[in-house]
Amino acid sequence: MAYIHPKVLDDLDFGQVLEHTARYAVNEPVKARILNARPHTNRAGVEEDLYRTDEMLRALQRGEAFPPAQFEPYDEELEKLRVEAYFPEPKTFLAMAAAVETLMEWKRFLKKFGKDYPHWNDAFFLLDIRPAIAREIRSKIDRDGLVKDNASETLANIRRQIHEVFRQRDEVFARTRKKYEKAGLLDEIGESYLDDRPVLAVRAMYRRQVPGQVLGTSRNGNIVFIEPESTAPHTRRLQNLAADEKTEIVRILKDLAAFVREHLDVLAAYGRFLVEAGFAEAKARFSQEIGAVLPQLTTENELYLRQAYHPLLLLKNKPGGEAVVPHDIHLHPRQRILVISGPNAGGKSIALKTAGLIQLMLQSGWPVPVHPESRMPFFGKILSDVGDHQSIENELSTYSYRLKNMRLFLRLADEHTLFLIDEFGTGSDPELGGALAEVFLEAFQKSGAYGIITTHYNNLKLRAEQLDGVINAYMEFDLKKMEPTYRLITGQPGSSFTFEVAARMGIPWSIINRAKKKVDRAKVHFDRTLSQLQAEKKNLHQNSEILQQQTKALEARQKELEEQNYRLLKKLDQFRQLYEQEHRQTEAGRKILELFDRAARTGDRQSLLKTVGRWWEKEFVKQKAKKPEKTPKRQLDKTRKEVRKLLENNDIRRQLTKIEIARMPYVPKPGDRVRLKGSTANATLERIEGNKAILNYGRFTATVPLQDLELVMRK
Q1: More confident residue, 211 or 426
Q2: Where are the extended beta strands (E) located within 197-332?
């Protein structure tokens, strides 16, 4: 049996989330849709809504906002239109046309971005968009809600007559006014209008001298407003034409209503779609305000809230820039019940409400303020017991009310239940209430339910350590600063820091020490041990964070060195390839020069051409193995022609021979002009002794290694 009692929504302040979201409603139907939203007890009922809201949120973040879903509601008028003779006001027709035009904008938007927003794309294309509705309405009614002159030929003719009669009446009235003005019968204002009829402002003493109908007098009675007889026929004609105009307008609106009546179901679908679009847009804008995301939806019984923020606390602290401490809460089959202890005003209730409110929001279709890697299931039952429920009307004390709640909880608790109990076991004698709470905890553990409990009872902390699936947690307290940090630490129970909090609030230590003497030593020792354990765990956590930072720094440095090494290896490989290419080119040049030199000595050009051809073919085969060529023969012929051309030019041949000689290794001989490699001073090589050379610089001689010499000029 699915069950989420309305009291749970009140306990966890879900109504405030609805009110904050309703600020973004574009109209009353959307606002009503928001305020009436309730959590679903299964994923199927709200999953599509969640995905569509998430797509709206992503569109806002990208700056690709969907077309506005703002429209004037017309659903009530649609129901009335089912009555054959009924026709609505022109503004209702305009609202229908605007809805159709808005959906045409949606169509253009989804045609462009539909692949990025598949859930809206699928929902939209279930609609039957009929642009003819908007065209027909716009052809009859202008933007100000007036029926157009050309809505019918009859109406156009009537309005032409009206304009003509108005013109005639104005001319007659002007002449009449001028006549009586010259006679001195009119007041200074001369004329006025009453009931859209022009009247003369006649001085009361001359009223009988101006024939016509008296339509009124001034406040003091000095002026009488008279419609002259000369304009009365025109006025009657205008009244008749106005009646004809109204009749024709009614006929046009009835015809338009008959046209719209053929599309009632489609127009109703348009309205529902736009309400849902406005609902999703409002949730998306609220989600953007609190930094909410869509977590991973899971079918497993696992609630993993990472960096979860209480949305209302975020909104409260935002104007002042106050920080909100996030919580990590993890419930799964091996760790189903979390027992949170710690000091008063340390944040236990906020941690519990954070988990509960976030779960309600998700099951109602809202993204939630958590890390995107969070995982959330759907609970069929959510139960809560939060706050002081003392009831004067029912004459129930807080403890009596809580016992009544426990009876309900125990009856409903199963593996699909999430229960939230604040200050578990309080309201009665600590020992007796604590014992009963311990038994309740055992019953919840056996039921397979998931839950979060806050408590100060030491026996519950101890029992939580002994029960499978139950784990302790505590709200951290900084003993140095003597203030809570509001961080939730899972894995061990926490001290209530009763005496420390009292000292912080200014209670004298003399009174605190007297109180300590009245408490069982074992309890004081247990509480002190818990506080010491918390301090040690905090130090370990800080050291762990430092080690993690150092590890990250080392990993970053290692990665940087690896990248540098990779870049060096890549550069070396490039140098190697360049060296091989230059070496291959040098060898090819040397080979050609040798062939030219041989041909120059022997004069056998044909032999040179054959040798060059064979050498080229070998080189081509090598190159083909690396990079296939489609036309090797053509390239070979081209090379042979180039060689022939070179051989025909003796100057080029001699120049190539000099280059080849210059590139050959130097063999030192006495009498050569030489210099040391890297030097600019020239010397004469006098003699060679083993691997040493004796150089004469003119004023002195020097002995240097033979391999260090380079030729300047042969002897």
Answers
A1: 211
A2: 197-203, 212-217, 223-228, 296-297, 303-308, 327-331
CB-count burial class (<10 Å; 0-12, 13-18, 19+) for 496: buried
d(C-alpha 518, C-alpha 336), whole Å: 37
Per-residue DSSP letter, 206: G
Q: Return the number of other C-beta atoms located less than 10 Å from residue 52's C-beta.
A: 24
- Backbone torsions φ then ψ of 601, nearest 5 degrees: -75, -40
**CATH: 3.40.50.300, 2.30.30.60, 3.40.190.10, 3.40.50.150. Which one for 303-519?**
3.40.50.300
**DSSP three-state, residue 227:** strand
Please calculate the CA angle 661-665-666 and round it to the nearest 5 degrees: 85
Of the candidates 523, 524, 162, 473, the residue with the CA atom closest to the CA atom of residue 338: 473
CB atoms within 10 A of CB 610: 12
Cα–Cα distance, 393 to 315 (Å, whole number):
35
End-to-end CA distance of the chain: 115
Q: Is residue 350 within 8 Å of residue 329, measured between CB atoms?
A: no
- CA atoms of 651 and 637, how far apart (whole Å): 24
pLDDT averaged over every residue in the chain: 83
| pLDDT tens-place string over residues 34-70 | 999 999 998 988 999 999 999 999 999 998 889 988 8
* Burial (Cβ within 10 Å: 0-12, 13-18, ≥19) of residue 633: exposed
Question: What global pTM score does this model have?
Answer: 0.68
pLDDT tier at 673 (50, 70, 90 boundaries)? confident
DSSP secondary structure string, 42-103?
Answer: SGGGTHHHHHHHHHHHHHHHHT-PPPP------HHHHHHHTSTT----HHHHHHHHHHHHHH
Cβ atoms within 10 Å of 675's Cβ, excluding its own: 16
Q: What confidence tens digit (pLDDT) does each residue in 163-218 have?
A: 999 999 999 989 988 988 888 888 877 778 887 888 888 888 888 888 988 888 88
Q: Are the CB atoms for 586 and 664 separated by under 8 Å?
A: no
What are the boundaries of each domain within the chain?
16-130+263-290, 151-241, 303-519, 564-663, 673-713
Q: What distance in Å separates the CA atoms of residue 370 and residue 291, rounded to the nearest whole number?
A: 8
Cα–Cα nearest to 190, from 179, 205, 202: 202
Residue from 590, 629, 636, 635 nearest 612 by CA: 636
pLDDT at 14: 97
131-140 and 232-261 are packed helices; what angle lies between their axes, rounded to 10 degrees? Answer: 170
Phi, psi of 327 (to 5 degrees): -125, 145
Taking residues 399-417, report their average pLDDT.
87
Model confidence at 101, pLDDT cuts 50, 70, 90, reads very high
DSSP assignment of 467-520:
STEEEEEEEEEETTTTEEEEEEEESS-----HHHHHHHTT--HHHHHHHHHHS-
SS3 of 128-171: CCCHHHHHHHHHHECCCCCECHHHCHHHHHHHHHHHHHHHHHHH
Q: How far is CA 607 from CA 599, 600, 601, 612, in A?
A: 8, 12, 12, 9
* Residue 582: CB atoms within 10 Å: 10
Among 307, 302, 8, 255, residue whose Cα is nearest residue 137: 255
Nearest C-alpha neighbor of 622 from the set 588, 647, 593: 588
Q: Give 566: exposed, middle or buried? Use CB within 10 Å, 0-12, 13-18, 19+.
A: exposed
* pLDDT at site 628: 47
